[in-house]
Amino acid sequence: MNESGIGPPRIRKIQTLLGILFLAVTGWKVAGSVPDLPKFVLVLAPHTSNWDLPFILAVMYGLGLKINWFGKKELFPWPIGGVFKRLGGIPIDRSSRYNVVQQTAQTIREREQIVMGIAPEGTRSQSGHWRTGFYYIANLAQVPIVFGYLDYARKVGGLGPVMHTTGNIEADMKVIREFYSGITAKYPHKVGGIIVSQRAWHQNSRNDNG
Which is more confident, 138 or 195? Predict the structure, then answer.
C-alpha cells in the first residue's frame, strides 16, 4: 500500500465485465497490473486510428481502472457534455491565461484520486513527433507517469512500467522511447517520433518556471 493509503480510482464491476467481454469477442488480451497509486499521468500510445479509443477503454475497463481525459470546454455543451463527463471528460478553458499544461496539472493536484489519460501524438494523422505536454503535466503535478499501450501485432493492451520524472526530459524520453519501440500501432507509418523538439523544450521550460 502507498503512503497515502488511497489506491487508484476504480470503475464499477459491470463496466469491468463489459470491457473483458469486448476484448474476448475481439480476440484481445490484457497485460500488466494497475499500480497502487492514487494519481498518475497515463500515456495512451501509439494513437493512429479511431479504433484506439474503444480498445484502450476496454483494456482499462478490463483492469478496473477509471481514467480521465481533457478536452476544450466547447466539447461539453448540454446535454452531451454530461455524457462526456461521465466517460471521464474534464473541460479545459483554452482562453484562460493558464495554458493546458498548467490547468491539467492544477486539476491533478486538486484531486485525491485521478488517472489522467493523455495521447501524446494528439491526433490520428501523422504528427511527426510526440507532444511533450504529458511530461510537463506530470512534472508540475509531481505525479508518476505510467505507460499505457495497444500492441496490434500481438493484440495485447495494458499497462507498462511506472516512471517518476527526473526533470531531465532527454533522459526520461529515452526510457519512454525504448519501451514503445517494441509496440506496434494499428498504422505503424503514422506513429510520431518520441523526441524533444527545441520549441517544446523552451516553451515548457518557461511554464515550469512559472
Answer: 138
- Which DSSP symbol is given to 191? P
Report which of 75, 112, 110 is spatially closest to residue 90, judged by C-alpha positions: 75
Domain coverage including residue 17 = 13-28+36-166+191-208
Amino acid 30 reads V
The x, y and z cell numbers of residue 13, run together, are 464491476
**Helices then strands, each counted (H, E), the chain:** 7, 7
93's CB contacts (< 8 A; 6+ apart) are 72, 73, 103
- Cβ partners under 8 Å of residue 59, min gap 6: 19, 23, 28, 30, 148, 150, 157, 158
Angle at CA 62, nearest 5°, toward 46 and 131?
Answer: 20
Q: How many domains does the chain have?
A: 1
173 assigned to some structural domain? no
3-class DSSP assignment, residue 192:
coil
pLDDT band at 134 (very low <50, low <70, confident <90, very high): very high
Residue 158 lies in a domain: yes
pTM of the predicted protein model: 0.85
Largest CA distance in the chain: 49
> 44: helix, coil or strand?
strand
